[in-house]
Amino acid sequence: MLNFASDYTEGCHPELLRRLCESNMEQLGGYGTDHYTASAAEKIRQEVGRPEAAVYFLSGGTQTNQVVIDSMTESYEGVISAATGHIAVHEAGAIEYSGHKVLTLPGREGKLSAAEVRRFIDAFYADGNYEHMVFPGMVYISQPTEYGTLYSRQELTALSEVCREKHVPLFLDGARLGYALESRETDVALRDIAALCDVFYIGGTKVGALSGEAVVFPKGNMPRHFLTLVKQHGALLAKGRLHGVQFDALFTDGLYFRIARNAIERAEELKAVLRELGFRFYLDSPTNQQFVIFPNEKLGRLGEQVLYGYMEAYDAEHTVIRFCTSWATTEEQIAALRRVLESL
Amino acid sequence: MLNFASDYTEGCHPELLRRLCESNMEQLGGYGTDHYTASAAEKIRQEVGRPEAAVYFLSGGTQTNQVVIDSMTESYEGVISAATGHIAVHEAGAIEYSGHKVLTLPGREGKLSAAEVRRFIDAFYADGNYEHMVFPGMVYISQPTEYGTLYSRQELTALSEVCREKHVPLFLDGARLGYALESRETDVALRDIAALCDVFYIGGTKVGALSGEAVVFPKGNMPRHFLTLVKQHGALLAKGRLHGVQFDALFTDGLYFRIARNAIERAEELKAVLRELGFRFYLDSPTNQQFVIFPNEKLGRLGEQVLYGYMEAYDAEHTVIRFCTSWATTEEQIAALRRVLESL
Amino acid sequence: MLNFASDYTEGCHPELLRRLCESNMEQLGGYGTDHYTASAAEKIRQEVGRPEAAVYFLSGGTQTNQVVIDSMTESYEGVISAATGHIAVHEAGAIEYSGHKVLTLPGREGKLSAAEVRRFIDAFYADGNYEHMVFPGMVYISQPTEYGTLYSRQELTALSEVCREKHVPLFLDGARLGYALESRETDVALRDIAALCDVFYIGGTKVGALSGEAVVFPKGNMPRHFLTLVKQHGALLAKGRLHGVQFDALFTDGLYFRIARNAIERAEELKAVLRELGFRFYLDSPTNQQFVIFPNEKLGRLGEQVLYGYMEAYDAEHTVIRFCTSWATTEEQIAALRRVLESL
Amino acid sequence: MLNFASDYTEGCHPELLRRLCESNMEQLGGYGTDHYTASAAEKIRQEVGRPEAAVYFLSGGTQTNQVVIDSMTESYEGVISAATGHIAVHEAGAIEYSGHKVLTLPGREGKLSAAEVRRFIDAFYADGNYEHMVFPGMVYISQPTEYGTLYSRQELTALSEVCREKHVPLFLDGARLGYALESRETDVALRDIAALCDVFYIGGTKVGALSGEAVVFPKGNMPRHFLTLVKQHGALLAKGRLHGVQFDALFTDGLYFRIARNAIERAEELKAVLRELGFRFYLDSPTNQQFVIFPNEKLGRLGEQVLYGYMEAYDAEHTVIRFCTSWATTEEQIAALRRVLESL
C-alpha cells in the first residue's frame, strides 16, 4: 500500500534518531534546562538572525497555538484567522477552551489579505458597540496555509504593517514551515518571518521530528513566566531533551532545510505526473500538499492501492483529495503512484 | 429629546415598582427561596402549560446565554447560531469565555432554517475528521431575532424536529419574547415554544422589568445542581426576591402580554408613519424594533431631536438605523417623532 | 417569627425605593451611561477622597470577586486568602471557574496577618520549584471578615506594606463594609481603605440595597477595557440605572453610614442581651454578625420562634449559630428576641 | 558529577530506543490509530486483567491530571487531594486553569485516609450551604505518593469503598507507578489498582520512557469523545506512535517491572548506606525516592560532587533533601555516592 495520506506517517528523520540514541544515557536537567535545548535555541536564534530571540519547544501544533494565543492575548481579545485556518476548524475548540474567540474572515485560498484585516479592525473600532464585542487581539496566519499556499514577502510585509499600525501581534503557524521555505516559488526566508512576525513557530512534527514545535519570539518578547504558563496548559515535558536533541539536530548542517527540500522535489515530480495524466488541481499549491479534484468513479480503485487524504466533496462526480510528500518520500514511491494513477 | 434608542430606557413598569414597594419590608429567605419566586415560577409553569417545567431567574441576557449554554453542553460541544446571533456578535465573547465555540451559519434575516442546521450537522458527521472539530451541541435561536423578525410555528417545528432527530437541544433566546408573542403576524404561542424548545427564556429586562430573565426548562430538564452552576458563574442574587416579585407581577393578569402589546401597537403606528413618509425599511420587522435605511443627509438633524440606534452603513448615502418602542412608548411620542421626521 | 438569619432579609432601604420610584420614567442610556451612575460614582470618589478613583457597579459579591480577581491577575497567578475567606469556601468555585487558584493561609478569626502573607510569599520565591507553582498574584481580605471581625488600621497598613513591597495588589471585599465603618471598635475609615488597598468594593446588597456592589479602583487603576471584561463575565446590566440610582441614594446625606449604624446599635443591644443571659460568644465580633455557642438542648425551641444562621457544630452539646442585624432591625425585635431567649 | 536529582535524568531505556529505531520507517496512521498503540493498549489490558479497559496515551503527568480530572468531573465539582498532592502544589494551577478547585485535606506522609475522605464528604452534605460550595467530585491519590510512600491494599480498598459509596470516582496518579509495584513492602498489584480505582495512569516518563503516560479506564468508562477532549486540551500527538511503540516495549516481557525493580534495588542499597552512615530519614520511603534530613554544614561539599533534590528547610541546621534512583542507576553509582557521603 502506498501512503501519501500525510507528512507524518514515518517516525523521525534517521539523523534525529541517531542523535537521540547517542545522547540517551547522558544525565541531564529536566524541563528544558539541558544543554541540547540551549544549543537548539541558539542555532535557531542564529538561523533567524535574531540574537535577542527567545525560543521555546512545545509538543504539537494545536498545543502550540493554544499556548501562544492564550498567553499573548488579553481575556477580552480574540484572534483573527482565515475561515479555513487550523485553529478555526481542526483543533476541537482548543482556542475557545482557553477563553478566546476565533474571529474568522473569509480569506482566499487559505490566506488573509492585509486589506481585509485592516477593514475588519477599522470596522470594529468604528462600531459604536465595540465594547460589547470581542476585540481583535492577534492575527493568525499559517505558512504554508492549510491549502499548501504561500504568502509572498510583499503580502507578509503588508500584513505585518497593518498589525503594527493596529498594535495587534502577528502570529505565524509554521507547522509545515520547512516546506514553505524550500518551495521553489517563495521569496520569504526565515529571517523575513522573524522580522515581520511577533511570534511564530518552526514545525517539527510534520517536518521530520517525532514531535516538537519551536516557538520563536523574535524580539525576546516572550510573555512573562512563559514556562509557568506552559506548565499550566499541561504542555511542559519533564524530558525537555526530547525536543532539544531533535531541534539541535534539525538545525545542524541545514538538515531542516534538506528534509523539506526532498518533500518539495517529490511534490514537484508528483505535480508533473498529475498534470501529465490530466488530473485537475483544486488550487495551485507550491508546497508538499497537493489537492486534486478526483473523479469519484476512480476513487474506489485508488483507495485499494494508495492512502490519501479526503478533503471534501467537490461536485456530484468529484472529490477533493490530498496527496502529501515528506522528507521520507522517495522517487520510487512517486513512480509507483504514477503507475497506480495510470492504471485507474 | 425623543428617545427611541432602545426598549430599556425607562426603569420598570409601574406595576412592578408598586409590587416591589408593597413587599419591601417583608422578611424573606435568600437566593430564590422566597414565596414570590415560587409564585412567579408557578405562574410561568401554568402559562407555558407545563406543570413539570423548572423555572429559574437570572439577571440579564448575556449572563443567561452563558449559563444556559455552558451548563447544557459538554466541553467538546459548541453552539450553532446565526452569524447575526447576539451570542455571536454582541456578548464580548461570553460564550467562548466559558469554553464553547459559537458555530455560525449564515441564516437569513437573523433566522436559521431547519435545512441549514440539518446540512451543517450532517456535513459534520460525514467529515472523516470530525473528532478533531467542535461538535454541534446545541442550537441557539432568538425570537424575535436581533433584526426583529420571527420564526413561524412551521419554521420552529422544523427546527425542533431536526434538533430532536440529531439529539441536540434547541435553545430559544427570548430577551424580547413578549414582542414576538404579541406581534400581529405571529402564529407562535408561549405553549408552542415550551413544546418545541428544550430550554428558553422569557426576557424581563427589555419587556418592562428592572432586570431579570426567566429561564424555563419545559420538561423539568434543568441541569443537575443548576443553582450551584449559577453561583459559580457569579449569577446568583442574594435577594432573589428582586426577580421573584417582578416576574410574579409580570405574570399576574397578563401584564407581560399587555406590556408587549403596547410596544407592538406603537410599532405598528411607527411603521405606518415611516411608510407614509416614504422611508425604506431594511427588512420587514413585525415586532418592536424597526430598521430603516435612512438618508445620511438627514441623519444630523434627526440626531438633534431623536435618540435612535445606529446599526451599520448601508451605502455611501444611507445608514441603517433602529427605532425601538416599548411598554412605555406613548401615542404622543409617535406623533412627535412623526413631526420630526416630516420636518427633516 | 423573628428573623435574624441574615442582613438581606428585607428588600431595600425605603429611601432607595423612593428614589427608584421617582426616577423610574426617566429615559436613560443603558449599561451605566446614565447620570445617576455618574453621580453615584462621583459621590463615592468624594467619600473616599480620591478624585482619580474609578468606580464601577456590579450585582453581587461572588460576581464582583470573580470579575475583580480575574481581571487583575495574570493567568499564572492565584489569590491569597484566609482559609475562611468567602472566595475560598462559599462561592461555588467561581474563582477557579475563572482559572485562578485560591491560595489559602490559616489566618486567625477570619483575618490574614501581614506576617503570614510575607512568610508565604518569601517561601514561594525561595522555593527552587516556584516556576512550577501558582504565583501569589493578589491578596484578598474582607472587612468585616466572614466572622464579623475587623482589621485595625495598623493591621491593614502592615498588609498594604507587604503587598506593595511584593508588588501584589491588595483587594478588600467590602460586602458588609458599612458595618465595619460604623463599628464602635474600628479605627479604619473609608479613606484609609482607599489609601491602603489597590481595589475594594462597597457592598450594597447586604447594606440596604436590592442588589449592587460598588467596585472602587482608588488610583484609577481599572483594568483596560473593564466594561468589556464585565460583559464577558455576564455581569453587565442593560439597566445600569438600577445600581446607579441606589448608590446615588446611599451616598447622599450619609445614608449608607446611617443604615450601617442602626445595625451596629442593634447588634450592641443584642450583645448586651446575650451577655446578660449568660450565652457564650464564639468570638468577639464588633460588627453586625454575632456568633454564639448555643446549647443544643435549647436549639429546637429557639428555632420555633426565631430564624437564625447555622454555622457549625461546636461540640457534642453545642452549636455555633449566627444572629444578624441590619438597617431594618428594630429595638422591638431585639426586645422580642430577648424574651424568646429568656424563655428557653 | 553524580546525579541523583531525579528519575528522569536519562533519555529512555535502551530497549525502547531500539524499538523506536526498528519501527521508525514504517508508515503508520496518526493520532493513535497505529498498530503499536493498539498492541500497547492490549498488553496493558491483559496486564491489568481487564479486557473491557480503555487505554489512552498522553505525554506527561500534569497534562494527564488536567485532562482526566477535567473530563471526569462536572463543572460544579472539585477534586479531593492530600495537601501535598502534585496537583495541589506543583502543577502551576493546571487543574484550576481547567475550572476545577483542588479540595485539599491534610493527609499523612502524602496519603489520604478513607476516614478523612468520608468525614469531608459527610461534612459537605451536612452543611446547609453546600449548594454554595464546590462539590467533591473525585478523589485523587498518588501511588507512590510525592513522598515515596505507599497505600497498602487495605488502605486502597477502604478508599475505594468510600468513593463507591459516595459515588465519587477514585483517580490514582501513577506517574511513578512501577516503583510502587516493585517495592518490597507493597501488597498492591496492578490488578488491585484496576479493580479498586475508576481511572489511573501508568507513568512512563519517570519509569524509563522518553515521554508518555498510559491512562487506564478499567471498566471501559472513558468519557464520551475522549479523543476530542484530549485534542481540545492540546494533548493529542499527531505521531501517537511515539507513545505506542514505547509502551508496547514497556509491556513486552515485563520490561516495565524490570526497569522499576532496578530502581528499587538501588534504592534499598542506598538506604542501607544512609542508615549505616548514620543519616536520618525524613520518613520511611519504600520506593525510589529517599528523603534525608541532611546537616547543612555538609550540604556544600555534597553539592560539589552530587546533584540531589532540594525539598525544604527542616530546622536551622538541617535540610530535607531527596535522592532518586531509576532504571539507569548502577551499583557503581551507589558505591560512588557512598564514598562521597563518607568523605563529608
Shape of chain A: globular
Give me the side-by-side strand order of the main sheet of chain A. 2-8-7-6-5-3-4
Total of DSSP H or I helical runs spanning 4+ residues of chain A: 14
- How far is the N terminus from the C terminus of chain A? 15 Å
- List how many beta strands of chain A DSSP finds: 13
Write the CATH architecture name of the largest domain in chain A.
3-Layer(aba) Sandwich
CATH superfamily of the largest domain in chain A, by name, is Type I PLP-dependent aspartate aminotransferase-like (Major domain)
The pLDDT mean of chain A sits at: 97
Order of helices and strands of chain A: EHHEHEHHEHEHEHHEEHHHEEHEEEH
Q: Give the domain tally of chain A.
A: 2
Helix/strand/pairing category of chain A = alpha/beta
Low-confidence stretches of chain A: none
Structure in words:
The structure is a homotetramer of 344-residue chains. By secondary structure, chain A is of the alpha/beta class. Chain A folds into 2 domains: 2-7 and 256-343, Aspartate Aminotransferase, domain 1 (Alpha-Beta Complex), CATH 3.90.1150; 14-254, Type I PLP-dependent aspartate aminotransferase-like (Major domain) (Aspartate Aminotransferase, domain 2, 3-Layer(aba) Sandwich), CATH 3.40.640.10. Helices cover 42% and strands 19% of the residues of chain A. Chain A is built from 14 helices and 13 strands. Chain A has helices at 14-23, 35-48, 61-72, 86-89, 94-97, 114-126, 153-166, 177-181, 190-196, 226-232, 241-250, 255-276, 296-305, 331-343, and strands spanning 2-3, 54-58, 77-82, 102-105, 135-142, 170-173, 199-203, 213-217, 280-281, 289-295, 306-307, 309-315, 318-324. In chain A, the strands form 3 sheets. Chain A has a 7-stranded mixed beta sheet, with helices on both faces. In chain A, helix 2 packs parallel to helix 11 (241-250), helix 6 packs parallel to helix 7 (153-166) and helix 12 (255-276) packs parallel to helix 14.
